[in-house]
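If you are new to this repository, start here. Below is one unmodified record pulled from the training split, so you can see the exact layout before writing a loader.
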Amino acid sequence: MKTRTFLLALAALGTPGISPWIAPAATAADAKKPNVLVIVADDLGYGELGIQGNPQIPTPNIDSIGKNGARFTSGYVSGPYCSPTRAGLLTGKYQQRFGHEFNPGPAQNAGVDVGLSLEEKTLGDRFKAAGYSTGWFGKSHLGNKPDYHPLKRGFDEFYGFLGGAHDYLDPKADTQNPILRGTEPVTTAEYTTEAFAREAVGFIEKHKADPWLVYLPFNAVHNPLQAPEKYLARFNDVQDPKRKAFSALLSALDDAVGSVLGKVRELGVEENTLVFFISDNGGPTRQTTSSNGPLRGFKAQTWEGGVRVPWLVQWKGKIPAGQTLDQPVIQLDILPTALAAAGAPASADWKLDGVNLLPLLTGANKDAPHDALYWRFGQQIAIRKGDWKLVKAPEDGTPLGNQGGKASTEGAALYNLAKDIGESTNLASQEPEKLKELSAAWDAWNAQLVEPKWRAGGGGKGRQQGQGGGARRNAPAAAPAPAAAPQ
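And here is the target side for that same chain:
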């Protein structure tokens, strides 16, 4: 009966005069607010998981999220590398709207104001206001100074690190970026993938009587490629040492996800827990072997291989199982979707770019939830509108964005992703009207943005000029070379 009531409420969204992508509070679970679990993998490519069609590394626990719910084949993130994607996820807004276009850089170089804007409310803030207990376990990469600490951004508990990457085995490997419990450094050596899962499991157990939000951003499968022997031994038949280590990293991640899902199941709250799983960007294949499958490009590029990622969601009893959906979605949608499920829908005053996906996930509305999706990363740009994508990204490994100038659609390529997922045939000269349409749409979006608050890699308060609407000066606009392994 609860499921039927929930679906009937969602079906009402199709009535005239009501936006199909705004859910009223009545669409929440009838009696008890659902728990929310957001799992983020680091640098996991589009083509690695079993559910994505790759049998090389078994990932049954991660795969189960999509099998028990939905897998989006056109699931995206709003940044082609780590920190910008996380800023967008936690706010539900394109991060370029508040200047978070690039990574903040290592702790020793970051300026005081380099981090997720203190003017923005986070996922933690929103769920605290909705009466949830909130926990964050894993990587931050959203600012190193005290004001940017997760405990000051709406989270009750934190166990993890503030920087962009960390040694998996030694908590003291980076004195500027220690593993922290709250604000205190951890000294006991543990494998971080296991430790983050253990802390999440403990939090869920402790708050089993309360509605809870768990944000679980693992550092796996980011460099360095480190794993204990028990995971490496699973892949003794893999000859390439780098691929063997990556396989062990991913297998450990799958076990960790399984332990958290197992605790949810053990407590009998599986049907009252909304689960998301994404990667923060595509795989840096040459550094870690992470495969982006049929997609062109890698991490730090606006080709599909940099921004299209594994995108899974589960809510047993509410979202029909076994769905494969091709409507384009983005990680910005996680916040409004979760809030709608919790009966605390986003206010129009928040001006979110993400939308509530529950109507799509339940079948109440099968239309694409976004008219278009957009990217800007230094001089790299992209827009996807329907099956069409306009993109300007590095060619043949050549960096784009280190030469100065401003982002623009000039010289961008045009692809039909329905026919050409690998972005191999540029149709710009054959489809001039479509080129004009997408260029105008990107220009209109870009005019709403602000200049980046810091340069690529952080390193202080210097601004990159000429990126957003308004001031367009000729100062450097840099994007990291794809051959590097940016944190």
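Two things worth knowing about this chain: The mean pLDDT is 88. The radius of gyration is 21 Å.
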